C-alpha cells in the first residue's frame, strides 16, 4: 500500500493502466482478486477514496468533489489514459468523472452502481438517514469487535456468502469506524452522495462516446438489472451489457474470476481503438 498526497492506493504490475474505484464502506482491497489476475499484463491502480482505507478526510465529499479527487490522483501519478473500472457509489463518481474528463479514459467499465435518481437506493436509505442523524458511526463502532453481527447488517445483502466476517471488518470497516472523527466524516460522505448530481449529467452521459462495458450482478437488491439497461440506452459508448447470474453488489470481489475475462476483452478493444484513432485520443 502506498500513500501520496493523502490518498492511499495499491499499485501493482506493468503495462497500460487500469484504475479501480470502490464505493462507500469498502476500499481498494475490494479489487484485490481482480488485480491478482491482471497484474501480469496491466499496471493495476486502486485508490482508497477519502475517509476509506488510509486516505485522509476531506471537507467536500460530494460526488463532483470526489470526481475531482480522481482527476487530481491521475494527474499526480501521471496517469494519462486509463481503463476505469468502478463499483457501487464509485460507479456514480466514475460517471461524473467520465463526463468531465473523457480525455483521461481509454475505456470505462461500470459494475453494479448508483444510476440516475437511484441514489441512495431504497434499501440503503435507512442507513443514510441514520448517518444524517449522527447515529451510524457510534453504532458501528460498538460492533467492531463483534464481526459476525456487524457484517450481517453491513454486508449480508452485498455478498452471496461471507466466510470471513472478521477479515471483512478489518479490511473495510475498522479503518473507517475505528476512529470517531473518521466515522463522523463517513457519515458526511454518505449524506453527500446525492441523486441530483447524477441527474444533472444525464445529457452529458448521452454524449459519452468512451467505449463502455456494463457488467451487472442480477442478484443485487440495491441496483437492479434494469439500471444496467438504463446505462446501455443512455450512454452511446456502451458496447456490451454482461449479466453475472445471481451476483450481488460485491461480485467484483467474490466472483472476480467471472469479471476478469470481460475486462480483458474490453481493455484489448480499447487499445485497438486507440491505435486506430477510434474511441478517443490515441
Automatic annotation (TrEMBL):
Keywords: Hydrolase. It comes from the Bacteria. The lineage of its organism: Bacteria, Bacillati, Actinomycetota, Actinomycetes, Streptosporangiales. Residues 19-254 form the AB hydrolase-1 domain. The keyword Hydrolase applies. Signal peptide: none annotated. This is Alpha/beta hydrolase. Pfam families: Abhydrolase_1. GO terms for molecular function: hydrolase activity.
Amino acid at each position: 500500500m502506498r500513500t501520496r498526497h493523502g490518498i492511499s492506493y495499491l499499485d501493482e504490475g506493468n503495462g497500460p493502466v487500469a484504475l479501480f474505484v470502490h464505493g462507500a464502506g469498502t476500499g481498494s482491497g475490494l479489487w484485490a482478486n481482480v488485480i491478482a489476475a491482471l497484474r501480469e499484463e496491466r499496471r493495476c491502480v486502486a485508490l482508497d477514496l477519502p475517509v476509506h482505507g488510509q486516505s485522509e478526510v476531506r471537507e467536500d465529499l460530494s460526488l463532483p468533489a470526489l470526481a475531482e479527487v480522481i482527476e487530481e490522483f491521475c494527474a499526480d501519478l501521471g496517469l494519462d489514459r486509463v481503463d476505469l473500472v468502478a463499483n457501487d457509489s464509485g460507479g456514480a463518481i466514475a460517471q461524473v468523472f467520465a463526463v468531465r474528463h473523457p480525455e483521461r479514459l481509454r475505456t470505462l467499465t461500470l459494475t453494479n452502481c448508483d444510476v440516475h435518481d437511484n441514489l441512495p437506493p431504497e434499501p440503503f436509505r435507512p442507513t443514510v438517514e441514520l448517518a444524517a442523524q449522527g447515529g451510524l458511526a457510534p453504532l458501528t463502532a460498538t460492533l467492531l469487535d463483534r464481526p459476525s453481527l456487524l457484517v450481517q447488517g453491513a454486508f449480508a445483502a452485498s455478498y452471496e456468502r461471507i466466510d470471513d466476517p472478521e477479515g471483512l471488518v478489518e479490511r473495510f470497516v475498522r479503518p473507517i469506524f475505528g476512529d470517531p472523527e473518521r466515522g463522523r466524516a463517513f457519515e458526511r460522505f454518505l449524506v453527500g452522495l446525492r441523486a441530483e448530481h447524477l441527474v444533472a449529467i444525464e445529457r452529458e452521459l448521452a454524449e459519452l462516446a468512451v467505449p463502455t462495458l456494463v457488467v451487472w450482478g442480477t442478484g443485487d437488491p440495491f441496483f437492479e438489472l434494469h439500471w444496467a439497461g438504463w446505462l446501455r440506452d443512455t450512454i452511446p459508448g456502451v458496447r456490451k451489457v454482461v449479466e453475472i447470474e445471481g451476483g450481488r453488489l460485491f461480485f467484483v470481489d467474490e466472483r472476480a474470476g467471472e469479471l476478469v475475462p470481460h475486462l480483458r476483452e474490453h481493455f484489448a478493444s480499447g487499445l485497438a481503438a486507440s491505435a486506430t484513432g477510434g474511441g478517443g485520443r490515441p
